[in-house]
Write a structure and sequence with these properties.
By secondary structure, the protein is of the alpha+beta class. It folds into 4 domains: 9-207, Arp2/3 complex 21 kDa subunit ARPC3 (Orthogonal Bundle); 236-253 and 433-493; 256-428, Beta-Lactamase, CATH 3.30.450; 548-654, PAS domain (Beta-Lactamase), CATH 3.30.450. It is built from 22 helices and 20 strands. It has a 5-stranded antiparallel beta sheet with strand order 8-3-11-10-9, sandwiched between helices. The protein has a 5-stranded antiparallel beta sheet with strand order 17-16-20-19-18, with helices on both faces. Helix 5 runs antiparallel to helix 6 (138-148) and helix 6 (138-148) packs across helix 8. The longest helix is centred in the last third of the chain and has 51 residues, at 497-547. The two termini are 76 Å apart.
């Protein structure tokens, strides 16, 4: 383990060394811890995304970034799978597709690597036992875990999304900066908050509200400020939208009917003419078909089943291979099957170089077009449908305008009296191109939705983001449908300099507040440890003093007792017949009868000398109840940490037994000296006599009798 964990300590590094294979319980705990990290990441990510969706281009604080660093600092590197899983599941880009899974995996990998790097760098500046920053290393902790380590996730995430085509090249730099700022703010604010909230067994390491409150208040104020700023920016953007909406909608939407109105002129041309030739049709419709949004204009007469052969024979005079036809799966023309009636293309105003010639193609052979034709006949009005005309013409707008014989007024006669259809095929992409370019230039979103009389809904152009409600809408009628244009302000529209200034301010504010909190927390812990050490030392000193046989007493500068041990209390009880108390003057009570008064008289004078900075050593005899006791007494000053004398100590040791032993030893030595002095002369005379005897014997020619050498040492 990389840090002390009150609830995870059984899974530490030492344990893993002793047990290479984890037990089933340890494995379950590992799974549970990682699942908890993944769940917390998911919850905080969703909360941050709510802030993000309301805050324009950037989230003011990305909470999971701080959570992951704190989790790895508390639980160790073994929690990285939980970080990866939580990031993968909470990625907004995650979709049930290969690209979505790859994008989410890249995002999760970046988050995991960033969290591991941040925790590794920050661990060097952390007191692992108390989960508190080492004093003087607060900036190192914040910068290494925050702005420095947070370079990883934005780089990996933005790069992977760009390579997958999910992020345009022009937005990569902005997205990277937004990502980095949100992660950095999340780390510098939320990681210290989690570390302070984590339970710790040490009393001095318990969190206090005065540390948590600044971080919580800063986070709340930054989020509130961002939301308020977003509302102001959104209001400004919506005001700009209101000013611009008329110009934007006039580009393609309100003038839509004007652009398709010429098709009704062709319908009137056929209604007023007994017979229209192909040359007349092409000449009359040329000013329409030349417009860029028109793909082509067809005239499809109604041909009854019994008129098919005659119609085809007449058309072959101009087009030798003409036949009423449909298409196979490869879009090759084949003869149309028999039916009640047909709507083949007789004339078509085609653009130059058209890949497909629709002459003879029966519109009634296609289900969607047949339904539109029948609807137009029943209502007597034009119908509009979005259909696929050809593999190269998908999703185009087709208008079916019926042409009736002048006498066909009754509903029952409409089908039999319909002469045919003027069919206008419009590429609405070209139709809405000016609107599309304009809204993009103004950082807006739009969509056009068609509603038929039956209530069916069709998306015709554009698209609003799922999380963006429309801010303006307008409807017009196109043929038998109601088309609704909706516009909304995009997030890019509120990306102003004020927003980026606020993000920068948020990062600086987060760093300053976290630095202040971490510094206060670190020094509080140092003070706690210092006081704890002093308390332990004091207890040890008291234990030593309590167990000492010497009389130990301390007084302040006013001669009042501040501390004493049981030996002194027992002595005072015998001499003064009172029990000493802290705050009592050391010489306030006279000794009882029978005590040598001389001993008590010089206590004050010796303490005065000690208070003046002089150490005093003296020896006194005390006569108590006829017994003489000898004490060696020392007086010493007490200095504060500033070198100021704040009191004095008096230590008295009973040396009566020692003095008695010393006196006995002295008497023995004196006796030995006297005996030595008395016997030393006798030994010298004996040696002289022995020498004289030996000399006489030698003179007599005899051998010496005695050994006359000096045997004294």
């Amino acid at each position: 383990m990389d840090a002390t964990k009150p609830q995870m300590g059984n899974q530490g590094r030492e344990s893993s060394l002793n047990h290479p294979l984890p037990t089933p319980i340890q494995s379950l705990q590992w799974v549970g811890f990682n699942a908890a990290v993944a769940l917390l990441y998911f919850i905080t990510a969703k909360a941050s995304l709510l802030i993000y969706l309301s805050a324009g281009p950037a989230s003011p604080i990305w909470l999971p970034a701080g959570l992951t660093v704190a989790a790895l600092l508390i639980g160790g590197r073994r929690l990285w799978p939980g970080v990866f899983l939580g990031a993968f599941l909470s990625d907004p880009m995650l979709t049930p597709t290969a690209a979505g899974a790859i994008a989410a995996s890249g995002y999760a990998a970046g988050v995991t690597v960033q969290a591991l790097l941040g925790a590794t760098l920050a661990r060097a500046y952390l007191d692992r036992q108390a989960l508190s920053v080492i004093p003087g290393r607060e900036w190192h902790f914040l910068f290494s875990a925050g702005p420095l380590a947070c370079l990883i996730s934005p780089t990996i995430g933005a790069s992977s999304r760009y390579l997958l085509g999910m992020l345009p090249a022009e937005n990569v730099a902005q997205q990277w900066l937004v990502w980095w700022a949100g992660d950095s703010i999340g780390v510098v604010l939320f990681a210290p908050l989690v570390l302070l909230l984590w339970p710790n067994s040490q009393p001095g390491a318990r969190p206090r509200y005065r540390f948590l409150l600044p971080l919580l208040m800063t986070t709340i104020l930054l989020v509130s400020g961002s939301l308020t700023l977003s509302r102001l920016e959104l209001a400004e953007a919506e005001a700009n939208l209101s000013r611009q909406v008329k110009t934007l909608t006039d580009l393609s939407f309100r003038t839509l009917n004007e652009k398709i109105l010429p098709l009704h002129a062709i319908e009137s041309f056929f209604s007023a003419s007994e017979q229209v030739t192909e040359e007349e049709f092409l000449r009359f419709s040329s000013h329409i078909s030349n417009q860029p949004h028109f793909v082509r204009v067809d005239w499809a007469p109604r041909v009854a089943a019994n008129q098919r052969q005659v119609f085809e024979t007449g058309m072959r005079k101009q087009h030798t291979e003409f036949a009423i036809s449909t298409v196979d799966k490869d879009w090759q023309k084949i003869s149309a099957p028999a039916g009640d009636d047909y709507y083949p293309v007789k004339f078509s105003a085609l653009p130059e170089g058209a890949a497909f010639n629709p002459l003879g193609l029966d519109h009634g052979q296609f289900d969607d077009r047949r339904r539109a034709i029948n609807t137009a006949i029943r209502s007597g009005e034009a119908t509009a449908r979005i259909v696929d005309l050809h593999p190269s013409l998908t999703g185009v707008l087709v208008l079916f305008i019926p042409v009736f014989e002048p006498a066909a007024e009754a509903l029952s006669n409409r089908k039999g009296s319909v002469m045919g259809f003027v069919i206008g095929i419009i590429d609405f992409r070209q139709l809405f191109l000016p609107l599309d370019l304009a809204v993009r230039a103004n950082q807006l979103h739009y969509q056009v939705t068609g509603f038929s009389n039956s209530g069916s809904k069709t998306l015709i152009a554009g698209a609003l983001p799922t999380d963006t409600p429309p801010g303006w809408s307008h409807s017009i009628r196109v043929a038998d449908q109601i088309w609704q244009l909706e516009m909304a302000v995009g997030k890019d529209a509120i990306s102003h300099a004020v927003r980026w200034s606020f993000i920068g301010f948020s990062l600086v504010a987060g760093l300053l507040v976290s630095f202040a909190v971490l510094s206060s927390r670190a020094y509080q812990l140092v003070n706690y440890q210092h006081h704890q050490a002093m308390h332990n030392n004091r207890e040890l000193l008291n234990a030593i003093i309590e167990s000492a046989g010497d009389q130990v007493v301390a007084v302040d500068t006013e001669f009042k007792l501040t501390a004493f041990n049981p030996a002194y209390a027992e002595f005072v009880q015998q001499v003064f017949e009172i029990t000493p108390e802290v705050g009592q003057l050391i010489d306030s009570v006279q000794p009882k009868v029978g005590v040598d008064m001389e001993y008590a008289s010089d206590i004050r004078s010796n303490i005065k000398k000690a208070l003046a900075g002089t150490s005093v050593k003296t020896s006194k005899k005390v006569t108590l109840a006829g017994q003489v006791r000898v004490f060696e007494v020392s007086y010493n000053p007490i200095f504060s940490t500033d070198g100021i004398i704040i009191g004095a100590t008096r230590i008295a040791r009973d040396v009566t037994s020692q003095r008695e032993l010393e006196a006995g030893l002295k008497r023995r030595l004196d006796e030995l000296r006297r005996w030595q002095k008395a016997t030393l002369g006798r030994e010298s005379r004996t040696l002289e006599l022995k020498r004289e005897v030996n000399q006489l014997l030698l003179r007599m020619g005899k051998a010496p009798r005695y050994d006359d050498r000096d045997e004294t040492p």
